[in-house]
Each structure stands twice: as C-alpha cells, then as structure tokens.
TrEMBL record:
Name this polypeptide is given: Dienelactone hydrolase domain-containing protein
GO molecular function terms attached to this record: hydrolase activity
A Pfam family the protein falls into: DLH
Origin: domain of life: Eukaryota
Domain Dienelactone hydrolase: 39-251
PANTHER family (alphabetical): DIENELACTONE HYDROLASE DOMAIN-CONTAINING PROTEIN-RELATED, DIENELACTONE HYDROLASE FAMILY PROTEIN (AFU_ORTHOLOGUE AFUA_6G01940)
Amino acid sequence: MSTMPASHGHSEACCNIPPVVSKGYDAKGTYEELGGFKTWPKEATKGILTIFDIFGYYPQTLQGADILSTSDSKQKYRVFIPDWFNGEPCPMEIFPPDTEEKQKKLGAFFQKNSPPSVAEKVPGYIKDVTSKYPEIKEWAIVGFCWGGKVVSLVTSSSDTIFKAGIEAHPAMVAPEDAKNIKIPLALLASKDEPADDVKKFEDNLTGPKHVEIFGDQIHGWMAARSDLEDPRVKEEYIRGYETALKFLSKHL
C-alpha cells in the first residue's frame, strides 16, 4: 500500500485526460428519467455505474464521470449516475458537522439514505438499464465517500454483476467487507480514512487489487469537496482518475 504519490507519468490507459476545469465545469452528459445523469460515447459497450457522494450532482463529480467515459484511448465507457436521493442530496452547508444542529441533520440524512438501502436497489437498476441498452455487456462500479460503502456492499455479493469496483475516499471502511469481495477492486483513500482500517481492508481482499493512500488529500478530493482551484488538489484529482482508468483498463 502506497501512502505517497507514485510516478506522475501518464499510463497507457489514460493518456488523453482533457484539461481539468477548476471552476464552472460544463458537463457533457445528459439527464433521463431512467438513469439520472449519463455520459458516454454511444459506441461504448462497457458500463460504469457511479455512486456519487452525499452531495449529489456536483460539477467535480460530473467532470470525473466525463473523464472516465472518454479519456482511455483504447476503451470508452458509458457512465450512469442515478439520483438515489430523489433530488434531495445532503446540503453542503452542514459539512463539516461541527454543531449539534448539523450533526442532527446529517444523522437524519444517513438514516433516510443508508448504504444498504441503496445497495439493494442496484441490481434492479442495472437490469432496467441493460434492458434499454442491451449493447452494454460488462459493468464496473465506482463509488465516492458514502458511495464507496455501497460499492463494498454490492461487490461482496456472490452473484454481483460487476467485473471491477473502485472506491474513492470511502466512508465507513470495514475490513470485514473485503473478505467477500472476489472481483478486482481498487481503494483510493485520503489522509482522513483510518489508515489501519485501510490496511486491514487491503489484507482481506483476495482478488486483484490496488490500494493507495493519497496522503495529503482530504476526504472527498475526487468528488464534491475537491477544491480544483488548488494546484495540488487538481494534480491529485487528475492522478486519482488516471489510477482508476488504468485499473479499469486492466480488469474490465
């Protein structure tokens, strides 16, 4: 497990990541009733289900979806980001939960939107999407923060449809979850996830894996909480998506 940035050379799988927009990103995807936000080149036959963080459709997350969709020079992906919160994501204003009132609001949000409740919906969602887009033959799942826990729950099922999984700065890292994950899985942690739990999670994974701690990044640096106007954050945001693309290229 690495705790420091690796080489910054571009990998073969992700040499075409476009310039990252620091502010005011214009997402390339569209919205539809079935799948929420989606982004893809229509010729793609591999799908990525993205589980966003608790803040929903933030520009940093949507830009990441576009990067995943088209930046691999050899393989394109159709990316789907369902709205699990039905238009009611967690307000950014209550984070960090440093007052009793904020803590109550955050607790109520998690009670209403628990990872297990969303994980239960994933198989039905994939069934609906593949019925509409039968050309998608293989699937990966990517989750951020809260969504990382959903990835653990979904991929630990013995009958999971997913061929690969990626967790970025996952919340609620539980080493026990990893024992039942047999598919290739990458975990990209920040400095804020408990390092001991991340290491134990890595040790319990029995399939192909990539586990790395981005040691100077905060929880959320690849999604809604990413400050892309900070050059170092932007650099590691790009490297995080490069790492994800390289992993998907190898295992999907």
